[in-house]
Design a protein that fits this description.
Layout (H helix, E strand, L loop, with lengths): L3 H31 L4 H58 L3 H18 L10 H11 L10 H6 L30
Helix pairs in contact: 1-2, 2-3, 2-4
């Protein structure tokens, strides 16, 4: 059974191939209509040409609609994931902030980080726990305490909490488990 993404790609290829075939047949019908020996034959070929043109226009319109729908679905998935991460980290920001100014600084840093992470194709598909752990690390927040033994086995190995933002240029690289969600 095909994975949904593979199935979508296969369907996109079929639509593209159908559009190419319809265009080839429409060109052939137009050429043959011009060379027709009688008005009945020319009328029949022009009708075929019109129907092929309609099939081509509908195929192209469908391809465009599918692209728009996928784009809208991706935007919605990213916005949903950003909201989930904000909700998961809101209590942590309140706890970690020494004062109201620090709280707003952390919220602003979180929003900037979420905007950056949204550029990664895999952000919305990555497990929420991975997204939260990565952003906690990047914001210099302490790692979450695993709720149970199963979660402790799944939780990525994080470095000890530091009060400063990790700086890969200063030699403090992200652990492999927290690097970008997908291949760059």
């Amino acid at each position: 059974m095909l994975h949904p993404a593979d199935k979508t790609e296969a369907q996109d290829r079929m639509l593209g191939e159908f559009a190419e075939l319809a265009m080839d047949l429409a060109r052939d019908a137009a050429r043959r209509a011009k060379e027709a020996e009688g008005p009945a034959e020319a009328a029949h070929l022009m009708l075929a040409f019109e129907r092929l043109g309609r099939a081509l226009r509908l195929t192209i319109a469908l391809q465009r609609r599918l692209v728009r729908d996928r784009r809208a679905d991706r935007v919605q998935a990213v916005q949903d994931r950003q909201q989930q991460v904000r909700a998961a980290l809101a209590p942590v920001l309140r706890t970690e902030a020494a004062n109201i100014g620090e709280h707003f600084r952390l919220k602003e840093a979180l929003d900037e980080r979420l905007d950056t992470e949204a550029l990664d194709e895999a952000f919305a598909e990555a497990p929420l726990e991975v997204c939260v752990a990565r952003i906690r690390h990047l914001l210099g927040l302490p790692p979450a305490e695993p709720a149970n033994d199963a979660e402790a086995q799944v939780a990525p190995a994080l470095p000890a909490h530091s009060s400063t933002h990790p700086d890969p240029a200063a030699g403090q690289a992200e652990p492999a488990s927290l690097q970008r969600f997908g291949p760059s």
